[in-house]
Sequence to fold (358 residues):
Amino acid sequence: SLTLGIVGLPNVGKSTLFNALTRNEAVAANYPFATIEPNVGVVPLPDQRLDKLAEMFESARTVPATVSFVDIAGIVQGASEGQGLGNQFLANIREADAICQVIRVFDDSNVVHVDGQVNPSSDIETINTELILADLQTLEKALPRLEKEARTKKERRPAVEAVQAAKEVLEEGRTLFSAGKGREVPELAELNLLTTKPFLYVFNCDEGVLADKDRLAELRELVAPGDAVFLDAKVESELVELDEESARELLESVGQEEPGLNALARAGFHTLGLQTFLTAGPKEARAWTIRQGATAPEAAGAIHTDFQRGFIKAEIISYEELVEAGSMNAARSAGKVRLEGKEYVMQDGDVVEFRFNV
Ligand code: GDP
Fold:
């Protein structure tokens, strides 16, 4: 499944956040694999629609979609016994589908900042610069080969031009993602450049900052068009240890309506370009993860490869229409349940029953 790789300077709260991601009891119960991979943290995507469906279909349980975060720093520590730590680190980022940078906003004189002071904008730049330099190196290595090919093969010229354009963006100190570049031609996409990956920025804030709308808007502005999440990693790591009622009390005392991990899951999902469709029956009401733009057979494949192979049709109704109708039977009688074929592009919140050959 798609993952976000967690990066950031030392002492910004990465481990604290990652502990919260891995200690989440709700996840551990439903997703035993979550604890198998020590460097992967899984967060459920909050989805109230599932509760409603479970009520309607008398489902025994609900299973939300999840988002996976890889603790890249953790991998690096393990790899440090070997050699080429820098390269290993970059290789690990390359494997992630999106980059999640944790940025320190919290002020605490007991926690040393590597640069001596808390400065979100310079922290972002430090990490960006590292990634940009790595990409420049990749491009400079690829360019002579492509240029040589282009001398004899005209059709290779657009690739050379695309690489040069990408290089210019990087030389200006910008990421390819922020410039909307880096995947124009297959030759460039194949290089799997780090800064073409979508970015999600997690600002690790104090309570005071979380309540300060203007400050949050300023921070968001720093990282546009990347996604931004604001949370207090320390509070998050405490919340996952508490029972429901104590967690609610703690949230209230810090003036938050929901755990920051909820917002993190939603943002991660968005950054990765994912969406969900829903199934419901007596066993479970469940949200399944697919790419935005996925077709009905691809959605069937998210449940089981056999469903995709034997796909015939999908019976589909939007969640809103189903709720309005009150039940699947009522929706069917009202002609609200559509029979969709292979070309159908899934919409977020489609409630689906697949018909397939086995
Ligand atoms: P890492 O090096 O990025 O993994 O950072 P850690 O998660 O180890 O955090 C470094 C120190 O900062 C630890 O002592 C944490 O307890 C502390 N810390 C992390 N998040 C917060 C926060 O939101 N507020 C405060 N005050 N301290 C934090």
Remarks:
- Confidence is low (pLDDT under 50) at residues 77-84.
- The domain at 3-46+65-114+198-271 is CATH 3.40.50.300 (Rossmann fold).
